Amino acid sequence: xxxxxxxxxxxxxxxxxxxxxxxxxxxxxxxxxxxxxxxxxxxxxxxxxxxxxxxxxxxxxxxxxxxxxxxxxxxxxxxxxxxxxxxxxxxxxxxxxxxxxxxxxxxxxxxxxxxxxxxxxxxxxxxxxxxxxxxxxxxxxxxxxxxxxxxxxxxxxxxxxxxxxxxxxxxxxxxxxxxxxxxxxxxxxxxxxxxxxxxxxxxxxxxxxxxxxxxxxxxxxxxxxxxxxxxxxxxxxxxxxxxxxxxxxxxxxxxxxxxxxxxxxxxxxxxxxxxxxxxxxxxxxxxxxxxxxxxxxxxxxxxxxxxxxxxxxxxxxxxxxxxxxxxxxxxxxxxxxxxxxxxxxxxxxxxxxxxxxxxxxxxxxxxxxxxxxxxxxxxxxxxxxxxxxxxxxxxxxxxxxxxxxxxxxxxxxxxxxxxxxxxxxxxxxxxxxxxxxxxxxxxxxxxxxxxxxxxxxxxxxxxxxxxxxxxxxxxxxxxxxxxxxxxxxxxxxxxxxxxxxxxxxxxxxxxxxx
Length: 514
Ligand code: BG6
What we know:
Elements: E1 24-29, H1 34-49, E2 57-63, H2 69-83, H3 90-97, E3 100-104, H4 110-126, E4 133-137, H5 144-153, E5 165-169, H6 177-190, E6 196-198, H7 206-216, E7 230-238, H8 247-272, H9 281-294, H10 300-306, E8 307-310, E9 312-313, E10 315-317, E11 320-322, E12 340-345, E13 357-362, E14 369-376, E15 396-402, E16 406-414, E17 422-430, H11 431-435, H12 444-452, H13 461-480, E18 489-490, H14 497-504
Parallel strand pairs: 1-2, 1-4, 2-3, 4-5, 5-6, 7-13, 9-18
Antiparallel strand pairs: 7-14, 8-12, 10-11, 12-13, 14-15, 15-16, 16-17
Helix pairs in contact: 1-2, 5-6, 6-13, 8-9, 8-13, 9-13
The protein binds 6-O-phosphono-beta-D-glucopyranose (BG6).
The site of 6-O-phosphono-beta-D-glucopyranose has 4 residues, from loops.
């Protein structure tokens, strides 16, 4: 008779086999920054809560401050409860905290990498990380290239002996096409494309990931998802906050660079892509890439007609007073940087030819809302000619990304009564109501996928470059013609009037945000 003895494990470490990420170390460059304490560590905590992290796991923070493991742990511990969404379980934090380590040093000093190499070597035996390492570059973009180069020179990017080495890079990936190409070239000298994970936190949002499921796991939408049935698509990404303390960064970037070639183009590519041949990372990204390449890069003349920029002036939002953008901390008093962009884009493809994609995005707007509206064409004939019905409500399919998460379909229905009247009604799916709210930071899935080696939700070099190729002409025209009327919208409004004109000229209007 064989007796099998098992040693009981603490509850938080029980996990279902097959889904747990492989043993590894996660190295965070820039560990002293906000991203680490607000998003990355809470996301790892949530992964541990979902029993998706292995016992053989370690976190190594790298930053300039002269701390040791204990000091860094204490720093994180002081704030973790505040940043973990949902309830905080101290015993779970203990489990994670015991795996936290620290290396002090400058990102451009060779000694930092010597110390890191030593630390990773120790963790291979003390934590059984098997040499698998994910490097998270939560640093200023100037360090991306140098860190990647150092990793290669020290052999830290080397994947021999069955171990994997990957890096995650945060945006901005360059500030125009030329710098994006240079950055890609620099990264690709140090690592293979398969090792590079360019993160876009919009792809961490459930509602964004759901676009693929919605389109391709249901048979009823795809047949009408094209120019025959869709009149146009509009995307609103509005924020109520101003630039807050990020004036210094933001003023050099501007709204276009900050939001459009990354977050908004990701949304467009998911909405507009062809069905991939499989859900393998490159099959999906090939189709996204094709859409991005098919977005028409505007001529200077088209930029003047199809792109609108704005900058906010003082105003009130939800009882908060905002000062002029130009009076914000870190912003020059004569700044010509845009805090609002609206654009009309064309996708030169068989499916979308003639279907405009309108986008508007900005800071200090009337409401916080990210939504994508697919507006369908009206019926070919208004059968209700001899009735009191003058016009029909358009059919809108709205993907609510945030803060409400869900999908709604608007259609016309007869209003009860003797007269024929039609009202617009919504069929609504609400994520939280249906599935219950899952407290998350938005980084869980992305970190998990990177540790699993799944690149589907990460941007490939060609996608980044295709996006900049569309935005570059706009940047050029705007740089050549400094804005004359900034500030041109009031904080708390929906942006400059020209953003409405953009659609009005085509006989359309922005869907009122509810
Ligand atoms: C960031 C931008 O990438 O996205 C910020 O740099 C912006 O300016 C933020 O506020 C918006 O993200 P979210 O998830 O709040 O829509």
